[in-house]
Amino acid sequence: MSFAKRRRKEVLVTTDQNEMFINFQVVQLVTKYNMSWDNGRFADVASCFTEDGVFVDATGYENRGRAAIEAFGVKSLDLFGRMRHVTSNHVVNEGESGWRHQCYMIFFSGLGLPSREIVSAHYDDEFIIGRDGPLFTIRRVILDT
After folding, report:
1. For residue 12, what is the enclosing H or E element?
2. Which residues contact 44 (CB under 8 A, 6 or more apart)?
3. Are the C-beta atoms of 39 and 143 separated by less than 8 Å?
């Protein structure tokens, strides 16, 4: 067996690939969350969480459970208008207390209105990996100061 074939075979069986796949799944979860929020599909936003998941909004208020998360989305649409979320610099790791994800976020609010507001923040997430992929258990929005 040539060195290239041996080396290729070794790379295919590393645990790094599992971590890369988890990273990919988490970024896909964040993308689903963003696209759902930005398109007013708040039941889909809530489905990104476990049944008893918690969304901690920028004021620190804890929206517990999918029904509360969905209701918060509807309320925020009334308050701020349509939004666009942009996330970057995703970091996923497994610690003693479980899986964590952090990323930077900017969002534009008031789309379609005369004024637009740009807000920068970051997400601090905890999640589980279920049979169908990751789900948020806690998602915190922390505004930049």
Report:
1. helix 3-12
2. 32, 36
3. no
Instruction: Point out which residues pair with 108 in neighbouring strands.
Output: 84, 118
Decide: residue 46, CB within 10 A, 0-12 exposed, 13-18 middle, 19+ buried: buried
How many residues are listed for the chain in this entry?
145
For residue 1, the SS3 value is coil
Please give the radius of gyration of the chain, using alpha carbons only, rounded to the nearest integer.
Answer: 18
Residue type, 45: V
Helices (H) and strands (E) in the chain, counts: 4, 6
**pLDDT tens track for 90-133:** 999 988 888 999 999 998 887 666 667 788 999 999 999 988 89
What per-residue string of b and e applies to 104-141 under the rule 16 or more CB within 10 Å gives b?
ebebbbeeeeeeeeeeebbbebbbeeeeebbbbbbbbb
Nearest to 59 by CA among 45, 72, 43: 72
Give the residue from 37, 23, 45, 142 showing the smallest Cα distance to 90. Answer: 23
All structural domains of the chain: 15-143 (3.10.450.50)
pLDDT at 3: 43
